[in-house]
Amino acid sequence: MATTYTQGSSEGRSWASSPRPKGRADHARNIPCRNIQIYGYCKHEKDGCMYNHDAMKTAAAPSHAENLKKRFNVESPSFTPSLPDGNGSSKTNTISPKAASAAPFTPKTAKAGLAPPAAVTRSNSAEWSNSEIPEFVPQGYQQAHQHQLSEGSSSLQDPFASYDGTGGYSESDAAAAAAAAAASINPYAQDATNSAAAAAFFQQPSAFSQPLQYHLYAPVGPHRENLLAYQRSAHDFFIAENLRQEFQRKAEASLQVLPNSNLPANIEYFHSLVPLDTSNQKNTNSFGYNSWVYKATSGKDGNVYVLRRIENFRVTNDKDIGSVKAWKRIANASMVTILDCFTTRAFGDSSLVFVTDYHPLSKTIAEQHFSSFYNPRQRAPQLLVPEQSLWGYLVQLTSALKVIHGNGLAARLISPTKVIVTNKNRIRLNCCGILDVVQPAQASTLAAQQLEDIRQIGRLMLALATNNPNAVSNAKTLEVIGRTYSERFRSIMAALMDASPVNPVSKDINTFMSNIADQVFNVFDTALHYEDAITSELYRELESSRLVRLMVKLGFINERPEFSDIGQSTGQWSETGERYYLKLFRDYVFHQVNAEGRPVVDLGHVLTSLNKLDAGSDEKIVLTSRDEQNVFVVTYKEIKRSVETAFQELSKTPRRL
Ligand SMILES: Nc1ncnc2c1ncn2[C@@H]1O[C@H](COP(=O)(O)OP(=O)(O)OP(=O)(O)O)[C@@H](O)[C@H]1O
């Protein structure tokens, strides 16, 4: 479909005088063309260039060479943009030297009914005014439409059917389009007198339908701000800036290493240990032993995990360590998953190590909410946690307990230092199962432990609601909570603290959960909203990854200095044949200059062009050589085909020494 013509002269220049592409002289020597393509263009077998067959056929002279002068210049009827001048004539139009930035190709007959192209000036735009444009009523449409209806809905074309899923049309579709092209149809030519063309067009609607516009950045919601197109910025194409920064900080934290640490180089199959503890003052409050937390990389899968070391612990009964198996089976989004447990002497003592998931940059509830309490130097007063956040915490902890108790286990340790905040309002119960190994309890006390779990949640919530980690659960504290938060929240706090087999609200975790069902649904709805927002962000990055792959391919092909003899007997591979388009396309996308010769740095143009290339759109663009001697009119679909062919050639090239 592409055509090539020399620039600037109404007479045109012969191929022989133009420097590129190589092989055009063969074309001029009238080597027969093959592969008649859509809309009457043909592809030359030697140089891969596209020529307008129909335009050639109309002339009396049989050979390409004889017709070159007439056919392949800016005056060529097929390629003269129909920008009407003041006199209604487009004869004097020539392609600008800055043709790379020219308006899209507009067929000459568009004058009859379409809106004016962007390049039309005020003076001549009168010619395009709506009042002068007769309403388009295609002849033959009525019959074709009725014919389709009479055949039933099955005869209607499925707009997706012809799409081959790879960004272009399937071969059958191309054949249909070629058949339509044989009837000399220009889908944009709205000449009502040409009934044959009109009828053919409407009988083959799918031949002209664009593929699904999936390649354009789909504005998948939710959209909080009502931004207009001109208010959008480059960031709108990509993941939100705050999210990007947060993810990058987390990625950086995950990859952090300590080059000169005193820690052992390897612990079992883990290496690159980095301490996560924020102070070196340890206490035995939680487990009865000092404990340390490290981030470490697994030598098995390269992923990052957390190792919690219980210092100086000796396993006296293998059964105790076996209890970890039951914890490994539990997967709950409000818990830090336990993955493994082993003993080691790598630290110079007998240590017990628990392997858990790593949640980068997380903080304990104590660090998040009571930092000023634990760190008197931090003078900033801690703000009260909003009630909605507290309900969110409560529902998450309850959800974790529901699974734990359902598996016949008890958390046993729910304290401000053993619940971590992994995201905004997102918490996880940490260190589950450790007490079962280091302080094994009798099975008969399980029910009591489970009730104690519920009371521990109550104490934690009380601490958060009063902003005091040492808050004592009594009537006065509840009264304070009642003054700050709703009566419902206060009563639920009271029920939590008073959990017992006879309490109708909190006698077990399932009963308690049904009593806060309304809040569970609120939190569930919030979670769904968050999921929608994250999915929407994901959609923006969807296009980026495809474009990166496309740019990688183009990068492999463009300006390839070696392989000068691939596919061509002479000349540089990446500079000849269809690859030459790719070089010009690269200029078209990245190296455009404006009328003042300044570089055009337009992200929108780059993204649009690359997306259209990836989708293999039928839209035509004008590519101009750097010396401005050659101009090609080519579709994205053809460029896409060239990219694929060239890349296949590259990847199939045998290794060279
Ligand atoms: N699974 C995890 N992923 C990421 N960071 C974690 C994980 N578990 C703990 N941390 C972080 O490690 C640090 C220390 O955690 P730890 O549980 O030891 O708290 P602590 O306040 O030191 O408690 P203790 O006083 O009992 O030692 C905290 O900043 C915590 O956020």
Automatic annotation (TrEMBL):
Region (Knob domain): 557-657
Coiled coil in keyword set: yes
Biased composition (Polar residues): 1-17, 75-96, 140-157
Keywords: ATP-binding, Coiled coil, Cytoplasm, Metal-binding, mRNA processing, Nucleotide-binding, Zinc, Zinc-finger
Zinc fingers classed as C3H1-type: ranges: 28-56
Region span, Disordered: 1-29, 75-127, 139-164
Family: Belongs to the protein kinase superfamily. PAN3 family.
Physiological role: Regulatory subunit of the poly(A)-nuclease (PAN) deadenylation complex, one of two cytoplasmic mRNA deadenylases involved in mRNA turnover. PAN specifically shortens poly(A) tails of RNA and the activity is stimulated by poly(A)-binding protein (PABP). PAN deadenylation is followed by rapid degradation of the shortened mRNA tails by the CCR4-NOT complex. Deadenylated mRNAs are then degraded by two alternative mechanisms, namely exosome-mediated 3'-5' exonucleolytic degradation, or deadenlyation-dependent mRNA decaping and subsequent 5'-3' exonucleolytic degradation by XRN1.
The protein's name in its UniProt record: PAN2-PAN3 deadenylation complex subunit PAN3
The organism of origin for this protein: Carpinus fangiana
